[in-house]
Every structure is written in structure tokens, then in C-alpha cells.
Amino acid sequence: MTKALEHLRVLDLSRIFAGPWASQNLADLGAHVIKVERPGRGDDTRAWGPPFLQDAQGNDTNNSSYFMAVNRGKHSITIDIATAEGQEIIRELVKTVDVLVENYKVGTLKRYGLDYESLSAINPRLVYCSITGFGQTGPYAPLPGYDFVFQGMSGLMSLTGKSDSEPGGGPMKYGVAITDLTTGMYASFAILAAIEHRHVSGRGQHIDLSLLDCAVSLTSYMSMNYFMSGKVPQRMGNVHSNIVPYQVFRCKEGDVIMAVGNDSQFADMCQAIGMPELAQDERFARNFDRVRHRTELEKILEVPLKQKSMLEWVEIFEKHNVPCGPIYTLDQVFEDVQVKHRGMKTTLAHESGAQVPSVDSPIRLSDTPVNLTHSAPSLGAATEQILKHDLGLTDDQIKGLKQKGII
Length: 407
Description:
- The protein is an alpha/beta fold and 407 residues long.
- The chain folds into two domains: 9-217 and 341-403, Crotonobetainyl-coa:carnitine coa-transferase, domain 1 (Rossmann fold); 246-326, formyl-coa transferase, domain 3.
- The chain is built from 18 helices and 13 strands.
- The chain has helices at residues 18-28, 65-70, 84-94, 108-111, 116-122, 147-153, 156-159, 178-201, 211-217, 220-229, 263-272, 287-292, 294-305, 310-319, 330-333, 337-342, 383-389, 395-403; strands at residues 9-12, 32-37, 52-54, 60-64, 75-78, 99-102, 127-132, 206-210, 246-250, 255-259, 324-326, 345-349, 355-359.
- Helix 1 crosses helix 8, helix 6 packs across helix 9 and helix 8 (178-201) packs across helix 9.
- The chain is elongated and about 85 Å long.
- The model has no long low-confidence stretch (mean pLDDT 95).
- This is CoA transferase.
- Keywords: Transferase.
- One of its GO terms (molecular function) is transferase activity.
- It holds the Pfam family CoA_transf_3.
- InterPro entries: CoA-transferase_III_domain (IPR050483), CoA-Trfase_fam_III (IPR003673), CoA-Trfase_III_dom3_sf (IPR044855), CoA-Trfase_III_dom_1_sf (IPR023606).
């Protein structure tokens, strides 16, 4: 079966989350991804557990669930790139690949002769993607950083959580590492854009991605609200700043999300709850008016919505074409009939003999479908194979590298 990116080879020097997420996206699409890890320890996230993957005998491996989530489909090799011999191996591998992904602190790889300028001289077609906290330039460029920090610095946490005036109010981080995930996604399509340009120019290029930049980009329309109004947006919990009603309502049992995006849907919602007159009320007829009279409308809607359960309202709203949905826990997510139909939970084989439940790729391509091959690799599992077949090293040479602790 042909895969969309099976013609691409990727050298992944990244660790933790954003870089591995980017290279996993490429692996999902068929790219051959070689993940370079430190001998003996590997990627930091291998130790970010429990839980850990258990082998066929029920023993914990060095593969945490966190590591498994962002490294499937790759081939792990161990190289100490702080050594001259390790650096030379990387340079030889660079001759064989299309893409390099790294997330070292600014200047680290330059000291090793593994920066873009050095490696592009070896392989002018190389697309070199650098992911750092603050980017390659600017006063903060040398500083390290993690997702949580950038959620705060970008303003995202000023927009997330209950209002300060409510019990439990205050800044709140996302439930997942949203800055890492977003940066990884930006990296994936930036890499493909550079590959596409290479078809025209014949040359690769350097990609400079900053977690802070990507986090700021996520503020999107909230920043535009600020730019155009001069008013600093505040935390609003589960309500929308520009659309009403677009929020969570308490039901007799559970909570329902109502996402009314236009005036026609609002009229349908009014019919569904048995209050069609609301659609004619001058306070609520247009979204502009509903935003201005948000509090009044919320108080009116709270009364009928508390008369039925969340499941009952979902069924009623769906019949009236009102956008809505339940709030699931993760166990409920993977029992939903639509999620099951789309096959978003899959099982992948691991080298230990274990079968690993995994979240499938959401990408659906008609001619080159995503076909996940294997789970995240064991540390260094492909080292000998790649050094032999890709670089032509002999058994004695590999043995010597092992004895020196280079691999």
C-alpha cells in the first residue's frame, strides 16, 4: 500500500513533546523516521510515568504512556552526539535524509557542528526544523521553557477558567499540553511546505519555530477582539465572548453543551425547548442583541433545561438541528458510536510482544490512507540495523562504538 510520505526520510533529534509530535505526524503518513536518543536513558519522557507499558510477562518496560503517545511508527537508535564519533554518525545520516527535527537550546548543536549551516553544506536539500521555547532570536532565545510556561505567557491562561468573581475562579491551564501539540502541528505543515518549495528551488531551508509564538497564535479571535476594541478579554468559563448561547447548561442529570452559531439555529433551539416566542423577542432575535442581553437569556434558558436530562436534551436538539453535545469522560469518549465508527481507538504491536491500545490518526486520505505500522520503539532497537544498512558499518565497528559508549 502506497503511503503519502513514504518517499521521505526524517532524522528526529527532538525530545519531550512538540518535536516528537511533529515527527510522529510524518511517520503516520509513511515517512521513515529515525529517532536519535541518548544511550542508556533515551528521551526524557520514557520516564514520565506511571503508567508504563508492560511486556508479555507483565513487567514494566521503560516506555511510559507519555512516550508512547508521541513516538509511534519510529525507529529508535542511540547515539551520544556530545562525542566526536557520535557527531560524525549524525553527519553521515544527514546525507541520507530529507528532514531533520531538533529542539535543543539555541547554540547547542552549533557547538557540535550539527547546526543548519553546517549540515546544509553536507546536504543542500535538507529541511532543518528547529523547535525552541522562544525561537532562535530575541532577548529570551537562550532560555529553556515548557508548555505550562507558555500557556501563561501567551495569554491563554488569562482566557481559560472561571471568572475571578466566581468560586474557583482564576487562571487555568488546558487539560493537555496544547502549546506543544500546536507547535508540533505547525512544525508538520511547515516541514511539508519546505519540502514542496524544494521541488521548485532544489534546496532545503531552516524552519525556526517558537512555542511562545505558536501559543500566542492560538489566542486568534480573542486577540483580534482586543486589537479592535481596546478592551482586554477576561476569563468567561464555558461561555463564548462573541456568540450566545454558546455554552454549558446544567440539566436534570448531567450538563449539555449548546453551540448556537446563528439566528436560524437560535430559532430552532427555541422551538426545541418549547419557547418559540424567544426568537421574536427584540432582546434575543439577533446574535448582536443576545450578546448584549446574555445574562437575561441565560436565566430564561436555565429553567426549561433543568427539566430534562442531558441525554434527553441531546436527542431533542439533534432532531431540531441544534448543534449540541454531551461532556464525556475519556472512557465514554471511546464508547461513543461515532468514535467507534471512525476507528479512533486502535491497537498497535510493540517489540516487547505487547499489544498497545492507541489513539488513531484522524487523517483520512482517499488514495494514500494512513496505516499505522507499530507502536513507539524500544530504546535503541534499530541502532545496529540502521548503522549497518544505512551507513555500511561493520559488526566490528559497531562493537567498538558500543564499547566506547557512543551508541
